[in-house]
Design a protein that fits this description.
- This protein is α/β, with parallel strands linked by helices.
- It folds into 2 domains: 101 residues, NIF3 (NGG1p interacting factor 3)-like (Udp-n-acetylmuramoylalanyl-d-glutamate--2,6- Diaminopimelate Ligase, Chain: A, domain 1, 3-Layer(aba) Sandwich); 112 residues, 3-Layer(aba) Sandwich (Udp-n-acetylmuramoylalanyl-d-glutamate--2,6- Diaminopimelate Ligase, Chain: A, domain 1), CATH 3.40.1390.
- Helix content is 36%, strand content 23%.
- The chain contains 10 helices and 13 strands.
- Helix 2 links the parallel strand 4 and strand 5.
- The longest helix is centred in the last third of the chain and has 13 residues.
- The termini are far apart.
Length: 253
């Protein structure tokens, strides 16, 4: 007989594992939408989009685990349009939705930054930025920006946007997945030769030119696919009988 996990047990387990209470975040972390009390199968994905919810329904999921949930600071609170569609689907099918934002970015083993570093062969020896979200460490070998960018393209399976600095050999990398362009100055202060995140805004191109530190925007979705996979695998490991499946829905951003 397939074993089940109670939602309260999973919620408490993840709150403790990810040290949720210590983070100041932009939305609620944990169980965002309550569904059936027992979970046989959990589907993980980056964002609680309608497409992911429908894919989870088709996969027979009792719960969905995401990095980007439904509720964010500044929303007006009305359940209309896309919000109504997503909530309606979850409630109709009695599916739980768990979401972990900054706690999943920051976790030293399972987090987005840790897992991106693992994928690319980077080992962090320092943390930087707000709430110590950013990671920094030496590259395995010095590289040019072209060589470095080629490695990112190959490992992530997408184009990246690379803004050159002063042409120095890259020896030290700082990284923070997703929309962390505001961390560039902290990365420079941390001694990086190159900073990697998901997105770029207009000021960062000037900072790169003026400070000599290269900047690479490798995609918000592309850099944040890995933490939720590692977290889903850990759940399946620590809750015997719980089935888990990662569903990746391509996103150009």
């Amino acid at each position: 007989m397939t074993q089940t996990a109670q939602i309260a047990h999973i919620d408490q387990y993840l709150q403790t594992l990810l040290e949720v209470p210590r983070f100041r975040d932009y939305g609620p972390n944990g169980l965002q939408v309550e569904g059936k009390p027992e979970i046989h199968k959990i589907v993980s994905g980056v964002t609680a989009s309608l497409d992911l919810i429908d894919a989870a329904i088709a996969a027979g999921a009792d719960a969905i685990l995401v990095h980007h949930g439904l509720f964010w600071r500044g929303q007006d609170g009305r359940i209309t349009g896309w919000m109504k569609q997503r909530l309606q689907r979850l409630l109709q099918h009695d599916i739980n939705l768990f979401a972990y934002h900054l706690p999943l970015d920051a976790h030293a083993e399972l987090g987005n930054n840790a897992q991106l570093g693992r994928l690319l062969g980077w080992e962090a020896d320092a943390r930087f930025g707000e709430q110590d979200l950013g990671f920094a460490g030496p590259l395995p070998a010095p590289a040019s920006l072209d060589e470095f960018s080629a490695q990112l393209r190959q490992r992530l399976g997408r184009e990246v946007l690379a803004v050159p600095g002063d042409g120095r050999a890259l020896r030290r990398v700082a990284w923070c997945t997703g929309g962390a362009q505001g961390f560039f100055e902290a990365a420079i202060a941390a001694g990086a030769d190159v900073f990697v995140t998901g997105e770029i805004s207009e000021p960062q191109a000037h900072y790169a030119a003026e400070t000599g530190v290269a900047y690479v925007a490798a995609g918000h979705h592309a850099t944040e696919r890995y933490g939720v996979q590692a977290l889903g695998a850990r759940l399946a490991q620590d809750f015997p009988g719980l089935r888990q499946q990662f569903i990746d829905l391509p996103n150009p951003a």
